[in-house]
Design goal:
Length: about 240
């Protein structure tokens, strides 16, 4: 889950909600710039964090505060079964979605290659599957990479928003630099709206949103206690309006 400090406690955004926000962003992409199999790619974006079940897992720090996902350590042996389950379950949405999820798993976990055999085996499986699906779907590796860059770009912007990383003072923050060398930045304008440069959306103005939970209790004795608090926590819809310069 994504945890931000709040004036009265904690603002918490579930990872599945963040994924839905990323899909919302993708839905506004310029028609001329959309990757192949655009809608299936949006489905992959929307479901790429289905593995996260914050209400069932360890969700507090050693000090009892809500556990932000950035504080979770490197992949462990026990995690491999879970990430394999996510990759396997994606197949039920079709090979294209499965390939996008598989590429995302590779991106997230390749840095840990060599740490233990179970993970290496999983990563090798993903590369083999990706090659097989490209052949079966009759697409080039370049097309697959471009579609995944789109996936990753939307995911990154969603995380920037949910983590409240937008700098003040009309300063630009890099979203990503794509394989073609083009860099994209997000900036908050003086009127409070956001803009992206260069602009790559269909509309000149649009709004996206995500739901956040608010808890005032600062420490929790157990993960179950936090999960219970989140069940009854007030919910607020956060909105961001993007406007073309």
């Amino acid at each position: 889950m994504i945890v931000n400090q709040h004036q009265k406690g904690w603002e918490i955004i579930y990872h599945r909600a963040h994924a839905l926000l990323a899909a919302e962003i993708a839905g506004h992409w310029n028609v001329k710039e959309r990757p192949i199999r655009w809608l299936e790619t949006i489905a992959a974006i929307s479901h790429h964090d289905d593995l996260e079940k914050e209400w069932e897992e360890k969700n507090i720090t050693d000090a009892g505060a809500p556990l932000d996902f950035t504080l979770i350590k490197d992949t462990k042996v026990s995690d491999v079964a879970s990430i394999r389950e996510l990759a396997n379950n994606a197949r039920y949405r079709g090979r294209w979605v499965a390939m996008m999820i598989s590429m995302h798993m590779s991106f997230l976990h390749e840095a840990n290659r060599g740490k233990f055999p179970e993970l290496d085996e999983f990563l090798d499986e993903q590369l083999k599957n990706q090659e097989q699906w490209r052949q079966e779907l009759n697409i080039t590796e370049d097309d697959a990479v471009k579609a995944y860059e789109f996936f990753q770009w939307c995911d990154r912007l969603s995380l920037i928003l949910c983590n409240r990383m937008i700098p003040a003072g009309e300063r630009a923050l890099e979203i990503a630099t794509l394989s073609d060398g083009k860099r994209y930045d997000v900036m908050q304008r003086s009127d409070g709206n956001l803009t992206v440069t260069p602009w790559l959306f269909q509309e000149k103005e649009f709004t996206v949103n995500v739901e956040a939970c608010y808890v005032e209790q600062l420490q929790f004795a157990s993960s179950g206690e936090l999960s219970q608090a989140l069940q009854t926590a007030p919910i607020k819809t956060l909105e961001w309006t993007f406007v073309k310069l």
